[in-house]
Amino acid sequence: AYEVMHSKVITLKPSDTVEKAASISRKHSISQFPVVLNGNIVGSISTSSMIWSNKNDKIASIMGEPFPMIGRSTPLSSVKALLKSANAVLVMGNGSILGIITADDLL
Q: How far apart, in whole angstroms, are the C-alpha atoms of residue 83 and residue 77?
């Protein structure tokens, strides 16, 4: 999994607004964000869920469950299986996010 992940992962806080998330999404061409509070992954957000929200809504009110988490040596076949039901997969190491993988990374 390590070889296809993006190591620059931008996270959001539950208190961030949809407007802030949308701005970051456009600036960095990112569609999936982990939501982190005090170093803990508490949820996830995608641009598709932002479309139906007001710009002043807090991320906490629209975030979904955290993305699945895997180790850096997880086989790509396992990543593909997880991406059937999740928008992204987080690659973890020593309790922190090393990277993120989306379906586009496997094309």
A: 10
* Residue 77 structure tokens: 């076949």
Q: Do residues 50 and 29 touch, judged by C-beta distance below 8 A?
A: no
d(CA 45, CA 62): 7
Going by C-alpha positions, the residue among 43, 50, 63, 2 that lies closest to residue 24 is: 50
CA distance 72 to 50: 29
Give 89's strand partners: 101
pLDDT tens-digit series, residues 29-63 = 999 999 999 999 999 999 999 998 999 999 999 99
Residues whose CB is less than 8 angstroms from the CB of residue 22 and which lie 6 or more positions away in sequence, other chains included: 47, 50, 55
| CA–CA gap between residue 22 and residue 47 (Å, rounded) | 7
As a whole number of angstroms, the distance between CA 89 and CA 83 comes to 7
In this prediction the pTM is 0.93
Dump strand ranges (E) for 1-107: 32-37, 40-46, 69-71, 88-93, 96-102
